[in-house]
# Entry
Amino acid sequence: MRKPVIVGNWKMNYTIPDALELVKRLKMMVSEVKGREIVLAPPFTALSSVSKALVGSNMTLAAQNFYWEDKGAFTGEVSAEMLLDAGCDYVIAGHSERRQLFAETDEGVNRKVRLALSSGLIPVVCVGETLAERESGETFSVIERQLTTSLRTVNISIPEDLVIAYEPVWAIGTGKTATPGQAQEVHSYIRGLLKKIFNDAADDIRILYGGSVKPENIDELMTEPDIDGALVGGASLKADLFARIVKFKVPEMAKDTEHYL
Ligand code: PEP
# Structure
């Protein structure tokens, strides 16, 4: 049984007071939610304050990025130890915006994943094809390259130590969502790749979908057998939208609903 995870990626949004206001509203709206992990990824500057505000709640903290070295002359970078110190449990690695705007590579993501794991942070490893790659039939080869390179020599003690996010680049921030069928096709392919690397543990690794997830499409996406949650950008900035996504509803019998609301 894979416990669903919903991660809100706030990107470069919100000062500390704005962040705390959003957390306050979310705490009121999702306090009853059980059987799902709710993770917030504010910008670095708000991590510590949000961490304190989350104490005693059913939400945990993620960072959006970090650097793979322990410490030293790396101006502008933040280490895994610093994220743990700020209260993070998770860290996003290889988001497509970092790949596209900041030249992040699969090899760099691999170094981050290994350091996150050895430091005690759970990496949320992002993979996904561009529109041009999808249209030229390269979706699976791109996913294979990104995933196998990012996970090279990676060991996990338990399947919950690692989260994968499939985020088709053409669906991020565009309002275009992959259909549940398109997403499931890639999620199932990713599960197959994970089996080659981690054997049976792959059955328990959570694979999230990301790309214009909103209240209107989350229920249908979550009925797919290999979609174990969502990485949410735009809709995570509004308490009511994010709370509704967290409270996704799957029809009886579509999945084992025993651990759900
Ligand atoms: C994201 O930032 O990972 C994302 C999926 O953004 P959005 O939900 O806005 O498409």
